[in-house]
Amino acid sequence: MNEVGRLFLEALRFDQEGPEALDRRARRALELGVGGFLMFGGEAEMVAAIVDRLRGAAGRDLWFAADLERGPGQQFAGTPTLPPPAGLSAHPAAEEATRKAGAVTGRVARELGINWALAPVLDLDVEPDNPIVATRSFGSDPDRVGRLGAIWIEACQAEGTAACAKHFPGHGRSVTDSHIGLPRIEASRQDLLAELEPFRAVADDVAAIMTAHVAFPALGGDGPATLETAILRQLLRDSIGFRGLVVTDALIMGGFGGQRDDALVVRAIEAGCDVLLYPADLESSVRAVRHAVRGDEELNRRVQDSISRSLAVCAAYSAPAADIDSAAGSDAAVSPGASAETAIDLATRCVRGDPEPARRSLDRELPVAVRLVSDDRRPPGLPPLGEAFKDELERLGWPLVAAGDSDGSRQQRIVLLEATPQGWKGRAGLSREALESVQSELAAARSAELGVYLVVLGHARLLDCLPGPAACAWAAEPVMERAAARWLDGATR
Fold first, then answer.
1. Phi, psi at residue 168, to the nearest 5°?
2. Is residue 333 scored above 70 in pLDDT?
3. Model pLDDT for residues 28-54, shown as the tens digit of each residue
4. Are residues 296 and 269 in contact, defined by beta-carbon separation less than 8 angstroms?
5. Does the pLDDT at position 338 exceed 50?
C-alpha cells in the first residue's frame, strides 16, 4: 500500500517558511507519494515556477490547491483579489459579477499551475455571532446561495480549475470557530436538511465538496462531520447523490480534534473522505494508514476507491493552461493576467451605502483625515491598513491631511474600520477596544461639528452598532479599500 500517500495534500506555506525548508518538505512529501500540495502565499511567478518544478519531479498528475474564496490574490501576490461572496451577492448584477469572479479565479489560478480552487463557501450566513463565515457566504437564503454558488463553480471549472463547495453540511449556524474547537449545532434534523439546498444545487457539477469540522447530532454522531459515516456516506453520497471528491478541511484545525491523532485520520477515511488536507504530521499519518489497511479488506477497498477517484478528477484538471479553451471568450476581465483595474471596477459596485448621507457629511474639496481602526490580525504581505484607500482618494483629487496635524481638530474625518472573519480570531463582532475606538472617533468629530463618515471593511451588520453615515466594503484587501474610495468619491460628487 505504497499508494496511500496519494490520499494527502501536504501544506506548503510560503507565508511561514523559507525556501530551503519548503524544498525539504516538498521533496519528502513526494517521496511519500502525496496526491499534491496545498499552497499558501508567495509571489505569483515564484509559485508558478515551484509548481512546475514539483510537477516535473513527480512525473505524474498532482493536485495544487489553494483557498481562493476572494480570488487568486487572496494567496498569491501579483494576481487579482476579488470581493468576497457577500460583496458579490450585494452587487446590482450579482449573477454576472459572480460569474466573472469565478472565471477570473479559474483562469488566473491555472496560469500559475493551481488546478484546485478551494471555493466557493456555500455555508449560510444565518448566525450573526458566527465567527468564521459572515462575508465568506453569499447570504442567508439557501436558494440564492445555491444559485450563485453554481454560477461561480461553472465559471471556474470552465477555465480548467476544479472547484470545491464547502463546508458540508454547513458551518453557518456555528458560534465557535472550527479552527479553535469543535462547534456543535443543536438544530433539528428538519431544519438542517432544509439548509442543504446549496449543496444539492451543485452536487451534480462541482468537482469536490469539503467537510465541516462541526458536530451535528441530529444528522448523526457527536463528532465532526468529517468523521461521521451517516453524514458523508449516507447523506452526501446516498441521499444527495454526490459522486465527486469528498475532501477534509485542514486536519490541523481544533475542530478535527486530533492534531497528531492518527487514529482520527483513519476514521476520516472510513467515514468517506477521499482527500485529506494539511495533516499535522504527513509521515506519521501515511504510516498510520498503511498500518490500518493491512488485513482490513474493507478499508483497503475504500482507500483504493478514493485514490482512483482522486486520480481521475485530477487528470481532468491537469491539462496545461494553454490547452484550455477559455469559456470567457474575449472578455478582458478573464484574459490572461486579468488586470487589477477590472477587479477594482467589479469591487466598486459591490460597496453598499446610501450616497445621500455621504454627500451631506463630506465635502471632497475640504481637508480630510483618514483615521484607522483595526480589529484584525493583518496577514503577511498586505500593505498597511488604509494605504490603498488613501492612495486612491489622493489620485481622485481629495485633499488628504495626516491625522494628528496641528489643525487636526478642524479636519473632516473618514474612519476606516477593518473587521473581517479570520481563522483563529474567535469572534464575530467587534472587540470592546475597536468598538470604543470607532465610537470615540465618530463622537469627537460630531461634537466638533466636523464632517465624518465611516467605512467598514467587514460585514454590513457591523453598521448596526455604529449608527451614522457609513458604507460597507466587505473585506480588507487593497482592492476593497480602493473600491470604497471610488464609491465615496462618486457618492460625494
1. -70, 140
2. no
3. 999 999 999 999 999 999 999 999 999
4. no
5. no
DSSP label of 2: G
Coil, strand or helix at 14: coil
Residues in the chain, overall count = 493
The distance of Cα 164 from the centroid of its chain, to the nearest Å, equals: 11
Q: Given its phi and psi angles, is residue 205 left (phi above 0), alpha (psi -120 to 50 degrees) or beta? A: alpha
Position 350 scores a pLDDT of 98
Predicted structure pTM score: 0.95
Give the burial class of 332: count Cβ atoms within 10 A of its Cβ; 0-12 exposed, 13-18 middle, 19 or more buried.
Answer: exposed
Among this protein's residues, is 291 annotated catalytic?
A: no
**Grid coordinates of 80:** 487579482
Half-sphere exposure in the Cβ direction for 157 (13 Å, CA): 22
User: How far apart, in whole angstroms, are the C-alpha atoms of residue 101 and residue 343?
Assistant: 9
CA distance 355 to 468: 13
Instruction: Please indicate whether residue 213 is annotated as part of the active site.
Output: no
Mean pLDDT of the chain: 93
Grid coordinates belonging to 280: 499535522
Q: Tens digit of pLDDT for each residue in 10-25? A: 999 998 999 899 999 9
234 has a pLDDT exceeding 60: yes
- Distance in angstroms (rounded) separating the CA atoms of residues 66 and 76: 10
Kindly indicate the confidence band of residue 123, based on its pLDDT and cuts at 50, 70 and 90: very high
Q: Which of 91, 167, 179, 459 is catalytic?
A: 179
Please tell me which residue in 61, 125, 249, 376 is annotated as part of the active site. 249
Measured CA to CA, the distance from residue 437 to residue 249 in angstroms comes to 35
Alpha carbon separation from 470 to 75, 192, 353, 360 (Å, rounded): 29, 35, 6, 12
Short-list 68, 132, 128, 212, CA closest to 423 = 132
Could you give phi then psi for residue 316, rounded to 5 degrees?
A: -70, -20
Q: State the cell numbers at 458.
A: 467587514
Contact criterion met (CB below 8 Å) for 358 and 491? yes
